[in-house]
Amino acid sequence: MKVKTGYIREYSVISAALGLLILLNLILGSVIIPPRDIFASLAGLSDLSFVNEILWDFRIPKAITALLAGVALSVCGLQMQTLFKNPLADPFILGISSGAGLGVALFVMGFSAFGISLSGSFALNLGVAASAWVGAFGVTLLILLVSSRLRDNTSLLIFGIMLGSVASALITLLQYFSSSSSLKAFVVWTMGSFSGLTSAQIWIMSMLIVPGLILSVYNIKELNILLQGEAYAKSLGVNLEHTRRRILVATTLLAGSVTAFCGPIGFIGIAVPHIARMFFRNADHKVLIPATALLGAAIMVFTDTVAQLPGQSGVIPINTVSALIGVPIILIIILKSKFI
Amino acid sequence: MERVLETKNLCLGYNKVIYKEITTFADRGEIVAVVGPNGIGKSTLLKSISGIQSFRSGEILIDGKEISSYSHNRLAEKVSFVPSQSPRARNLSLFDMVSSGCYNRTNWLGQVGSNEMEFIYHTLERVGLTDFAGRDSSRLSDGEFQRATIARALVQESKIIFLDEPTAFLDIENKLTITRLLKEIAHEEARCVIFSTHDLQLAIKHCDRIWIMGRDSFSHGNPQDLIEKGAFDTMFKDSPLKFDRNLYTFV
Questions:
Q1: Chain B residues 107-146 within an 8 A CB cutoff of chain A
Q2: ipTM score of complex
Q3: Which residue of A56, A151, B52, B222 has the fewest C-beta atoms within 10 A of its own C-beta?
Q4: B108, A221: Cβ pair inside 8 Å?
């Protein structure tokens, strides 16, 4: 029996679907822009100034953000699932989103406690992103500090979950003592959003995500060994501590950055790696990493498109849509497979 | 005979002592069985001498050098380890599973060189899994999967192979197949195979040397000498079980 190595057909099908979904994402919204006008504007031939404005100032940045977020969260979720040999692991299992949330809560509610109002939306956005990133990175740093003292990956998982619970408890405490307006700002952040990012912010986000993705590709070799158990990995000469650290840093760069700029976006990070495994029926991360990246991008852009569907009457929060799309997928996987 | 493994006053355990005073050795080209009652520390012994787990005191010499003087990669060239129950990774092809043994010789993406391919297929043939290369390794039978884990260790090309209860959970036919395979590997490829087992009859019949982890003391030697010295009786001391010298088992 021959071993299958190439998946060019599968990758091209997903890429084509991704292209169509991006086009659909650009078409739909409060105003429907016909594909003809989109192509004209993309080619720089459109003289419809409102089309150019909507497209270049709003929809294209939003589509790029969704695409980056989808890639980052899915690739990150895949690594967490392999590291912990746990099908329910997601990018935030180690408390990264709780850490980010704590950062944002301290920023949003802390300022209001000192009587400073945050009216400038740009300063608010950047401050939220920075504090979220510091929170996420703080959690990772704490885990890295103790990781060499932890016996195995299960202890690491328990430590991360506990850390997340402490952060969540602190958030609740802050919420209890904060004003209703700052509470609302925090809750809006937790709903997740891809819109309103300036091109500078998108640049910063990609500068963090791209190194995270490069590091993830560099993790492939060890991820494949980890599939076969820690004892075996150790006997092969894999340095488990280094590997753990590299995966953690990649995770923070990917999930931490997305959370900082878009809020904690759930379900995609769990669901996409499973979809990739179902599609490709191969456990090799050389196949799965590009597969989750492409599928993650496509599903996230689709999620964002669905969120825009109410058109004139507003936007559904991303987390609502991702849960509505992600949960059935997870259920199908559980029902269809005897073991994950 | 090349002495590939030696322990001196080895004391197992981390915080508390599990087993003490193990002074023994194994040579190249030998198949060695480690026997003893449940919970005595057979797994701990194998994990300690293969460098997976730390030990309390004493010396472990691999190829004449202290085990702690080896780096992760260098040790993996000398020693490979087959855990008692390896997790099965779904959708991992048998070929990918076995080729992972080349870890130290692959490129940064973990791709196997074309010169290794032939060696991997040859190893699959050796353990009788030639036709299974493209199969999902998680769907192999217990006996086939155990042979796959042995192939994985062979691909690592280490002088010493440790196996933690490789024949547990297998039927009698598979037990025999695996034990014979291990013996062939030791004798024909001049490697040293050390495995733990509860199957005394097979161990006595097929192994060159047996390490007995008795309740109070450790003894080692070739099976016939051990039988004559009555060493097997130390295994279940203070119990009504007695070793039968003709049946090679406890009655």
A1: 108-111, 131-136
A2: 0.90
A3: A151
A4: yes
